[in-house]
Write a structure and sequence with these properties.
Radius of gyration of chain B: 11 Å
Structural class of chain A: alpha+beta
Strand order of the largest sheet of chain B: 2-3
Number of strands of chain A: 29
Distance between the termini of chain B: 31 Å
Helix content of chain A: 10-25%
Largest interface: A-B, 71 and 28 residues
Number of helices of chain A: 7
Distance between the termini of chain A: 37 Å
Strand order of the largest sheet of chain A: 5-6-13-7-12-11
Shape of chain B: flat
Strand content of chain A: 35-45%
Helix content of chain B: under 10%
Largest sheet of chain B: 2 strands, antiparallel
Radius of gyration of chain A: 22 Å
Oligomer: heterodimer
Structural class of chain B: mainly beta
Chain lengths: 421, 31
Amino acid sequence: KIAENHHSHTIEVSSLLPSTSCKSPTKVLSSHDNKASLEVVHKYGPCSRLNQDKTIAAPTHAEILLQDQSRVKSIHSRLSNSKASGGNDVKVIDATTVPAKDGSVVGSGNYIVTVGLGTPQKQLSLIFDTGSDITWTQCQPCAKSCYKQKEQIFDPSQSTSYTNISCSSSICSSLTSATGNTPGCASSTCVYGIQYGDSSFSVGFFGTDKLTLTSTDAFNSIYFGCGQNNQGLFGGSAGLLGLGRDKLSVVSQTAQKYSKIFSYCLPSSSSSTGFLTFGGSASKNSKFTPLSTISAGPSFYGLDFSGISVGGTKLAISASVFSNAGAIIDSGTVISRLPPAAYSALRASFRKLMSKYPLTSALSILDTCYDFSNYSTISVPKIGFFFSSGIEVDIDATGILYANRISQVCLAFAGNSDATD
Amino acid sequence: VFIFGNVQQKTLEVFYDGSAGKVGFAPGGCS
């Protein structure tokens, strides 16, 4: 449906909206040569197990974009807070209060994988998030509160392999770097707490249990949060799989086997599937760029971003615009955010090349939207990202536009409000 | 910060190698 030529994509307008049926039925993803692959589905799409439960309404696109904005605000505050205060202003957690520590709003994170937890294993659909570190799920008896989730809530008392972490364990104190909060203690058991933005959090007992990734890849004692007090925009998922760079992330905890290697592919539409693989090797046609570390947020995956091309032409944006701001890649943020000068250059160039199409009203944070009701195919300029290693990564045609409906299809990028963000 | 969001990552195979300190991108990765 998308013809490529040198500088633009020709797209069938009908392909802009996801189909209502799952296009790639669940395939058995294999485990071999020391790698484990899980299927990735869009939380609100027809391939998701969560979607079958009509009582969990999918948010509107405007709501998803608004949640995304609060996630981005909390990421920016996480980076500026620790820069400003020279470290985490951590607070002590007890089982009832969670300090307003900005984390990252996960409600907008919309890709999930299903893993097994405990013995016998219970299937749980978790949001996977490279922008946060600890893995947690809601746990019985939900001492304080649990939000509605699709699968049965995990009950640690029914798992023969579950253990609690004691307050005196060094793992307990290492929660400070993974959550930004000093752990608490309740009946000599370590209490974790993580706050995501202003609307969602999870507090509970920190423990270990068996994590089953695939039929042949399981880890007997993975540290995770057993949430007794959970609130938030998790859309029916059972919790979160943290893939950040902290030592408590699942990536670090399985490093012995997978040497901190993981990869994923996010599907082109909410009605198709992708994968999350631990271990393995990169595709032959991969282009590499170095990982960098943002001192104010060492858990994030930093990249040295250096430019943007639109329609085959690199935009005249000084490299300092990107180096001043720094860059991260985040599976939990929906819309890419650019430094203001970069976004206004992208916006101007895109609008010029799309001038034959009628503009329409903005959609939340997206200010360049078109009405394609009178078109069956459109021609959209290609967009590429440049990195300091000299590589250029072409953004797929499905990653350039965000369709609310055919009469409101928007450029899927937004500008940061402040250049120092 | 510039944040590379998941819409723009669609159909790319994004490969993280935390030990070697690099990230790889391969187009058309989901098949």
